Amino acid sequence: MNSNVYFIVGAVAVILIICLLILLRTMKKRKQKQLKSFHSNHSNIPVTEKQKRLLAFGAILSYHRMEDILNIVPKNRLDQYVNGLKDQWDINSPEDAKTILNNLLSLKRSKEFEPVILQPSPELIKIQTEIAKGLDLDLSIVKQTTSAYAWDICRSVSLAKRCYWCGYLSEIETWGIIETAANTAIQYGKNWTDYTVSFLLGRTLQGFNPDDLIIECKQILHSQNPLLRKITDIDVYKQYPFA
Description:
The protein has 243 residues and is an all-alpha fold. The protein has helices at 2-40, 49-55, 59-64, 78-89, 94-105, 108-112, 114-118, 122-135, 139-143, 149-165, 171-188, 192-205, 214-222, 236-239. Keywords: Membrane, Transmembrane, Transmembrane helix. It holds the Pfam family DUF1266.
């Protein structure tokens, strides 16, 4: 009796492993096909130094999502990005994409946080203290940032790239949006430290836990590779000036 049970369990395990291998192979082929199609329909012109500086404004989210920090070429299946835009942003068309991106570029959400940031409160001090500790900065430096502009700017750069991958933006439109985002950041921000603090302020006031991204932000800000790994362009803020 026991031997029969072991045989059945073993057979089921073998079948599941085979099914998993088939699924992984199918997904790999789909990814290769989609990326090949993307490359065949886009210019594939190398990113210039000027464009790399613009991409630095999306570095935090690019690093967090394990994307190339200084490139606009996708690494995963395109249908994953399509589903992500639909689920997270309710973007299903070029019109949807441009509407959302225009809202980000106008700092619509970030400006809603201004009254909270400009009026000191125990809750704000708590957030600023957590950010200072997480980024290894003096609290006085963190308090100098009085806008959450980078929360919208960083998201606009990241979102523009994904909309481009999904075919909702042309390459020219994508670079136009990213350049507008960088220029807006310069108008509101001072340097990469201010930008990082601003991003975390906005993200935390949006309702996210600062601990979710504080380590990545610190590594980008101080050009620190994580333990046992070397990240390409982790020193992006050293490579390119804020303004």
